[in-house]
Fold this protein.
Amino acid sequence: MMMEKKHLSTIANDVIRRCALEVDVSVDILNQEFEREWEGGIDGYSRKLVEFCCKRALPVMCGSIDETISDASFSRFTFDMMLAWEMPSSADEESHTECVAKEEEEKKVAVVSDQPQDDVSLFYSDLMPLLIDREPTIGEGAFVWLGTLVPLVVDTVNGRFTYETLTAPTGNRLHFPAYDKFLKEMHRCIKHLQKQDTPTGAELADNEIILHVEGTASSQSVVRHVGRTSWAGRLTLTNYALYFEASGVVSYEHAVKLDLSNNIEQTVKPAATGPWGAPLFDKAIVYESCELEEGIVLEFPEMTSSTRRDHWLALVTEIMLLNKFISKFNVESEVQVWEMHARTILGIIRLHAAREMLRMCPPEPRSFLIFALLDELPKGNYVLEELSGSLKGGDPCSAISILRSLNVSKQITDESDQIVQPAENLSSLEGAIHQSREEAKEIDKAKDTTRGLKEEGIGESAQVLMGLLKPVTVLVSSIRDILRWEQPVTTSVLLVSTLILIYKEWAGPAISTFLLWVVGKMLWLRRTGVAKKSEKIVIGSASDQTVMESIVSAQQGLRTIHEIMRETNVALLKIWSILVSKAPKHTNRVMIVMIGAAIVPALIPFKFLLMGLVLYCAVALLKLGKHTQSEQGNPRLREWWDSIPVVPVEINDKESDTTT
């Protein structure tokens, strides 16, 4: 028997010995094979040795994975692999032991909170006594690393999100009982799906696998709505299509197939249903396609929340995004196509298993679904591009091989039996995932800062708006004073500068100068530390008005808003009257003015017209100019505007029919 290597930790020595037994070679031979491939120095030697041995042993284990999951040998061995990867050297083991001892000392003096944790699931509440503090746990890095070797319990794309969801109730550390329970729930879900009946009258395509079924006698009902008619039935989802079978007297009627793999314009989104078409219950989805005249509405009745609807919506969206991914990136190799299908199927199975474990607090579906996650993440399209270039298939630990070992997939084609070498360099994919995840965290932090504002009432929102607009109000007031010649020197300088800019055609440089001035102002504010000095904006809510005066002011404000809306409607109707010649005399005058306005720019350069307009506005705003204006000008224009008749408006319950 080979003596343990002193530079390795206890768990690493044990894992390497068991890996040697799996591949039926000695530890020395494994070590020699690694030495021939190893080109690095001392740094990282222990971890790379563990990775090499695990990579040799896992293909052998994947051949009999169906039996080893049942007896927990697969979960125990892979969990120890993750422990060995996380703590490969003896120095890591000593550091871990010291950290554990320090944590135990801190727990002795820590005050345990008595507040109930309602969001902790029933599974973790029942299992918590088994999660002994001295039992080693694994972290996020080891969990994701295992996904690069065998994509059963985790996928490399969404592995970190899956880990966060599974370990949220246990301090972001994964314990073996939870890991073993998760694997067994996955195995149980697979066996349950294999027992489901094929939809009535439908013939499943090759490698079309049933992924979810509801509406049977042992599950909750599903209702399809067509107009004011409803049918209860069975809904079946596969990796290619959605099938609905209406319930008959004795058996189900022939299934209605919604092909999700077609490269056509199709969408699925949440919908609300209710009696007589009233949208009262937000518990349905609607499938729309360019091949259908109207959408197909499927309702998932439940007493309180819309968790079932959200679950089905996520699954259907995932299948649609999967087929769009294959079509968009032209994945033509049958092995790679089926590998992506297999990874998606395993992701859906993980979601089923997590929902069984976390019944009291169902997890967010996107944490387990690849395409639903990337569809929402920032720069998810870049991750999809990297993913399309890193597909593999056919090797003993690919997703295809795992489904075969679990007796899920049918016989694929002869092409899938060929070995396709996996992409060894996954750094670009991992880098894209890491960048996307970090940006998602920044966005979530930014959204958290807006939650307080979104929860405020109308009164508080109005106060915040008025407080934020106060500097703008002051600026507008100053500009108004300048334009009204209340500051003659400033107004004169502004007028002359504007005329020079227009004449010299310096508008572009002026805009550039203004933008650079804004940048300089921002840099000055950063240097003076204004953001650190004032971490929050304080807006005073004190008012000199009494309660009655505030009510009257609010009522007056509503009247003002109503008056503005009424005047806007009248103006739009009068414009429509002019356009359709409801008032021929007014229309003729408008057309003559527009013809004249069209001739003038053709004869006079635009910059001179603009300069004349600026001068006219300046003189019009000048007090002397106001006295020299015709006192009949504005009243005449008002009289002309008031004399325009409007088109009558009729409001009815039918859909509006506006002719143009």
The longest helix spans residues 547-579. The beta strands are 210-214, 222-226, 229-238, 241-246, 256-259, 266-273, 281-289, 296-299. Confidence is low (pLDDT under 50) at residues 109-123, 413-425, 628-632. The chain is about 55% helix and 10% strand.
